Amino acid sequence: MPFKAGLELTELQNMTVPEDDNISNDSNDFTEVENGQINSKFISDRESRRSLTNSHLEKKKCDEYIPGTTSLGMSVFNLSNAIMGSGILGLAFALANTGILLFLLLLVSVTLLSIYSIYLLLVCSKETGCMVYEKLGEQVFGTPGKMIVFGSTSLQNVGAMLSYLFIVKNELPSAIKFLMGEEESFSAWYVDGRILVVTVTFGIILPLCLLKNLGYLGYTSGFSLSCMVFFLIVVIYKKFQISCYELGLNATSPILSNSSEHEHMCKPKYVIFNSKTVYALPTIAFAFVCHPSVLPIYSELKDRSQKKMQLVSNISFFAMFVMYFMTAIFGYLTFYDNVQSDLLHKYQSKHDILILTVRLAVIVAVILTVPVLFFTVRSSLFELARKTKFDLCRHVLVTFVLLVIINLLVIFIPTMKDIFGVVGVTSANMLIFILPSSLYLKITHQDGAKLTQRIWASLFLALGIMFSLVSIPLVIYDWVQSGGSTEGH
């Protein structure tokens, strides 16, 4: 019996599945729930019908069906924007500490695993009708599920904000020195990266974050993506302009003064294992996390279906895979072992208008992107606290406190690899591996027809747990051993 689109939830709750005299309790069939309708064929008994009707009611409670209006091409652009971020700046460093072959293997693996996790997420969304990650977690695991999803997505967004402000801290001093005509060694207090990041935060970002809604800031993601494409073009161009041999001659290290040692340093390496190799997988994982944006993009897709959204996902991830690999390989083949965790910071802007332009474009892009992420974190926090009604004092206080905490972290975290490492082994791992597989296994735990899919999802979950158990101790061990490197300042 089809439900009318205009029925209220209270009417649905009072409805019962009618008994059909032509259908016996011994009949061997099921009820299919799809697109707001219950299609009764032959059902096994009254309990089966009641169970499936309750399942449909839960779907109605989660999200009402609203047709999407965004084309497939624009959805690909939006998802690519969601994937692309500051993680691209750390991939050359990851390659330098794994070698070309091992890096390519890890990049391909994370790309395919991310696509599979999107598939699991879309299946869960279809089964429950939820188009919001937090609602999906609450629907399947109750309040603990909602808390875990909130924690993971918020940590991911905070990590992204930290990495963006770290770019400001690293790149803005060099840009200002160039505009002032000063040498890179110039060290006045007003070109200190820590002072500049605080000034930018409370002079530009704070007023934007105090706005009641995002408004035009939602369009900055397109500008941000354009800046990263421009950055990739410059990285490729600079590979053929900067000589590794010249870099060696300019170095003051006694090791590089030996020509044979220098020749060895300027040869590409294919497989490397060292203390920094542990950061490669978290950095790649951080670069591919887009899961909080998948369901909102799915909900806006015109004539949406799981198959169509999976196509959007496949195209977006393939495009980002190509872009990430090209940035990493050309960045590595420019600086080899001397590459830093912030690739852009390695390029010297002295007398180089092109590098200065890239720096300024990326700085402006990340400054305008921080408020977008901040709005998401703050609104999720208010939603969790059930304080959705706008209150000016609370709005200002929470905004100010969160920005102070984020600035303190940016000032005292020594390198971007630490941000990529921590967020990669925690929230990125949760969002890519653990949450999608856990949700899928819970939703399908009574579906015997999906045994094979459940086995694959279980292996996927085990891989995520193993990734955490191995990576977290290694990252902590590297912190203890390095004693707080100052690279990247």
UniProtKB/TrEMBL annotation:
Coiled coil: none annotated. It is a multi-pass membrane protein. Keywords: Membrane, Transmembrane, Transmembrane helix. One of its GO terms (molecular function) is L-glutamine transmembrane transporter activity. InterPro entries: AA_transpt_TM. It comes from the Eukaryota. GO terms for cellular component: plasma membrane. Residues 69-473 form the Amino acid transporter transmembrane domain. Signal peptide: none annotated. It is found in: Membrane. Pfam families: Aa_trans (PF01490). This is Sodium-coupled neutral amino acid symporter 1. It comes from Apteryx mantelli (North Island brown kiwi).
